[in-house]
Every structure is written in C-alpha cells, then in structure tokens.
Design goal:
With 146 residues, this protein is mainly alpha-helical. The protein has one domain (6-133). The chain has helices spanning 6-23, 31-36, 44-103, 105-131.
Length: 146
Amino acid sequence: MTNFGISSILVRAFLSFGVLFAIYNSSGYSYFHWIVSGFGESSAGEGFVLLMIKLSVGLFLLAVVLTFASIVYHGVGIAGIALLLLLTAPVTTAFGYYFIDTWGFATVLFTGGGIFFTMGLVYSNLRYRLSGQVQPASNNSPRAQL
C-alpha cells in the first residue's frame, strides 16, 4: 500500500482542475472555444474528420467528468455530496467576490467545481484507506462477476 500524502492531494487537484479548465477557461484555449471556432476553410472531408475528432475529445472529457462524479458519489454518498457543496459554496463565493471581474463568472464556477471534485476525490480515497474497505465500484473479484 502506498502512502497518502500531500502529493496525492496535489495530483487529484491537478487532475480535477486540469479536466475542468480543459473544458472551459477564459484564456480562449479550451474545448468550448475549439468547438465554437468552427471548421475554418476545410473541405467537406476534412470538416467531417475534424468533427469526429472534436466529438471524440468531447466524449473523452465527458467520460472523465462522469468518472470523477461516480467516484465522489460512491465515496461520500448523497449526504457527503451535500456536505461538500456546503463546504465548497463559501469558498467559491469568496473567489467570486474577489475575482469575478478578472476571471469571469464561468471561471469562478469551474474553480468551485474543481474544489468540489478535489475534496470529493481526496475524501473518497482517504475513507476507504482508513476503513480498509474495497470501493464498491471497483470490486472486480471473480466471485462478484457470477
């Protein structure tokens, strides 16, 4: 069993914020901006290929966000999600109060989402490490597959 330390928390934070800000950020280099940029001066064949690439990247980002949501849901449950939202809301509000003019509303919301996912992923992992349980979503024993 590996140790759980500050590096584990930072990895989860970088993953959470990285995925969310890959979907949208105010710099103009995000999946959202890539989608709304259109196809440029490409032919019909090139446009179709580019559409399929954009769709594939979007489905990948959706799968990662849904995986994060599933891990948080299975790790903390409905009551834990409510508690995480109560913990995340004041921090997001504080960020909004100080940074809404420079960051924009969407970036503040995505920052709150990153904090939510980070806390949920960290708590989920710590809970199962401290209790010694197997995570329900990852029980892949041969007996469970019968």
